[in-house]
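user: Here is a favour to ask of a fellow structure person. I have my own habits and do not want them to colour yours. Could you put it straight underneath, so I can go through it closely?

assistant:
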Amino acid sequence: MITEIVLFRLPDGMSRQDAIAKYRLSIPTWQANPDLIRKAFLFDENTRRGGAVYHWKSIEAAKLGHGPDFQKRIQSTFGSQPEFQYFETPIILDNTTKQVVDEAASNICATSPQAKATAKKVGKEPLVWEAEPSIAIHHAQDHVAAVTAGSYHVSATVDLVNGREVAGHSVAFKPKDTDHKQWQYLGSATTVEEAKAIAEAHYAKALKTEA
């Protein structure tokens, strides 16, 4: 993964409210970019700078997303040229979802405290997610978490929305010793984290039933 910091000067007289309003106009464009993982918009009144911090799947995706057209939009909207910084991002800690994404690991563990507590109560292991190449989408990853009764699957998807390809993730539970026709569809989400949360909610409910 790549972290990109983009900064640009704000014009004199542009208020915080004005800058944020312009930021909001760009949200649909960034939501439709399948290579963008997340984006945090920035504003600093003291230095009169705006910008954003981006998490991308690759450096190529970052540079493609911020090519000449993007730079022209910043110049036209804010009257300045953006500056770019790039950093490799080997680990991401997300306290809102209680997740650690570590490139050194072959899996991504994402188990909520509630699911962990319930699992411990009934003597079961919490969900442990393993990443594997997607069977449907090139350069994407699916995620699988095996449990006694079967396995949870978060699969990469691409949907066509308003003429644009939008990446997402479907969530399903596969009971043990069954084929695809008997999989239980649990829902879909935009991000891997949201998709795993759906699976974990289902798992926690199942554990409570066993308890």
Remarks:
- Residues 151 and 179 are 12 Å apart (CA to CA).
- The chain has two domains: 2-88, 91-210.
- The first strand starts at residue 2 and ends at 9.
- The domain at 2-88 is CATH 3.30.70.100 (Alpha-Beta Plaits).
